[in-house]
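Figure 2 data, in text form.
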Amino acid sequence: MRVAGLAHRACAIGVALVCLSACGRQNQQGEAAPPPPAVTVVAAVKEEIKPTVTFSGRVQAREKVELRARVEGFLEKRLFTEGQDVKEGDLLFVIEQAPYRATVDEIKASIEKAKAALKLADVEVERASQLVARQTGTQQRLDEANARQADARGEIARLQASLEKADLQLSYTEIHAPIAGRIGRATVSVGNFVGPSTGSLATIVRQDPIYVSFPVTQREMLEARKEENAGKPPTVYVQLADGNRYPEPGTLNFVDVTVNPGTDTVQVRAQFPNPDRILVDGQLVTVVVEEGTAQSVLVIPQQSIQIDQAGSYVLVVDSANKVEVQRVETEQGPGSRLIVTKGLSAGEKIITEGVQKVRPGQVVQPTEVKLGV
C-alpha cells in the first residue's frame, strides 16, 4: 500500500511539472517582441536649382467688366447661371422693353406724319414757283411755301434723331457680354427695378490667361536686368496657399513706369496660362522668380523637418534600419522642398511619415518613396 501511494504521488508531481513547462512556453510566446514600426523614408538627392527670390503677389484678371443698367425699368430676365463661362455677345439680362418700344413706335408715326407734311409743302412750293414764273402769284407766297417746306424737313430730321435715341434706349434694355469670361454672382434678382444708379448687376472676369502683379525693389530690378542683358531672362512661378507650385510658368510682360516713393519698389506683372481656373482674381500668392545659373543643391521634403529647442533636425535610417538624429541647416527651396546647406549627404534616407512611432536607436521597417515636387 505504501509503495502504491508513493507511485501515485510521483505521478502527480510529474503531471504538475509537465503543466508548468507548457505554461512557461505559452508565456514566452505571449511576450514575443512586436515587429519593427513601419515608416516612410525619402532619400536626400542633388538637384540643379536656380537661385530664387520670392515676393508677395496678387492675382489680377486680364479683363474685368462690371455689367450695369443704362436705362431704368424692371428686370425681366436673367439668362445665365452664376459662375458659368459666357461668350462675347451673349445676352445676359433683359430690362422691360414695352415702354421703350412704345416710344419708338410713337416717333415712327410722327415721322410718317412729318413726311406727309413735307410732301404737301413740296407741292405748295412747286405751285407757288409756277405762279411766280407766270407772274400770276406773289413772291411772298413762294417764300412762305419755302419756309413751310424747310420746317417740314427740319421736323423730319428732328424726329429721325429722336428715333435713333429711342432705338438706342431700347437696345440698352438688353445687356450683352462685352467680353468672354466667367460671370459671377448676380446682385439683383428678376423683378427688381434697376437703373444707372443701381450699380453693378454682375461681373465678368477673363481668367485665361491671367496676370499676377508683385512689387520689386530697385536693387532686385537692377540685378534682374543684368541677368536679362546677359541672355538669362528670369523664370516666374507661383506658389499656392498649400505650398505647392502652380504647374505653369509665367512670363514677365509689364514693368510700371513709376516707383513707389514710400517703399522704393516698382510694380511688375507676369502673365500665366490658367486653363483650369486655379488662379482667381484677387487671390494672394507667393511669386518665385528664378534667375542666374543653376546650382547643384541637396533637397529634402519639408515635412521631414523636426524642430526642438536645439534647432532643426531629421530622423535618418541607417544601413541597419536604425533611427538616428541628425541636426541640419536648411533654407526654402522650390515648392514644398527645402535646400539642405549643412548636416546631410546625398543618398541618406530620412523619415517623412511615421515620426511619432519611433525613437532614436530603434530598428524600423522602412518603405522608400521618391522625392516629390
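Caption note: The first helix runs from residue 2 to 30.
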